[in-house]
Amino acid sequence: MDHQPDSGHAIPLAPNAMVAMTRDSLLALRDSLFRDLGITAASYLQDAGYAGAAPVYEAFARWLATRGYESPERVGAAAFGAEASAFFAEAGWGSLELGNLGHGVATLDSNDWAEADPAHALEFPGCYYTAGVLSDFFSRLADGPVAVMEVECRSMGTERCRFLVGGPDVMQRVYDDMGRGVGYQEAISGAPAE
Questions:
Q1: Each residue of 19-44: pLDDT tens digit?
Q2: DSSP assignment of 104-168, as one string?
Q3: Is residue 36 part of a domain?
């Protein structure tokens, strides 16, 4: 079956336990949390994203069914990146490009991700809500725990947002190494594969 984008199958929000929120509202919420809570706001945003991700995954599964797939697990590796990107773009988040850095770490890159705000010069990546959503989303897809960490962000002035996706142990080692000043690519290449 041909799995081409079909704009006639929009993602229905209410039946998928989702609501539309403007990008400006999401950014204002993030800014307010950081203003009032400091860096601890990051964990609140991640927790909220993680808590609300189940309906996103279920909406993805139903959306794929309109495109002829039995389930997300049945989408071949070659088609998965394009399908996931189309879904998230249609849901208003932006495009995603999937890649692989090896050592058990995949990448998700976007040059138009909705949670990023190039007008804000952040010191650290700022798409914490997204990291929570993607962590739960890919954990469901993998049927096991998956961690997601943003390492490049358009809110920091980079051209793209880059999320690393991998097992919790590998991602913790990468996080710890980065905390010691090691670049994420070097940290990944030094991390043993799971």
A1: 778 888 888 888 899 899 998 999 99
A2: TEEEEEESS-TT--TTS--SS---HHHHHHHHHHHHHHHTS--EEEEEE-GGGT-SSEEEEEE-H
A3: yes
Helices 53-65 and 77-90 sit at what angle, rounded to 10 degrees?
110
How far is it, in rounded angstroms, from Cα 93 to Cα 139?
19
Which residue is listed with tokens 């943003």? 150
Across the range 99-120, mean pLDDT stands at 93
State which of 3-7, 122-126, 131-135 shows the largest mean pLDDT.
131-135
In this structure, is residue 10 part of a structural domain?
Answer: no
In this predicted model, what pLDDT tens digit does every residue of 139-164 receive, in sequence order?
999 999 999 999 999 999 999 999 99
Q: Which residue has the tokens 């809110």?
A: 155
Q: 57-79 pLDDT, tens per residue?
A: 999 999 999 999 998 988 988 89
Predicted model pTM:
0.88
In a domain, 15, yes or no: no
Cα dist. 136→11, 29, 59, 100, 122 in Å? Answer: 19, 21, 14, 19, 25
Residue 166 maps to which CATH number? 3.30.1380.20
What the block records as the tokens of 66 is: 């309109």
Domain assignment of residue 147, given as a range: 21-190
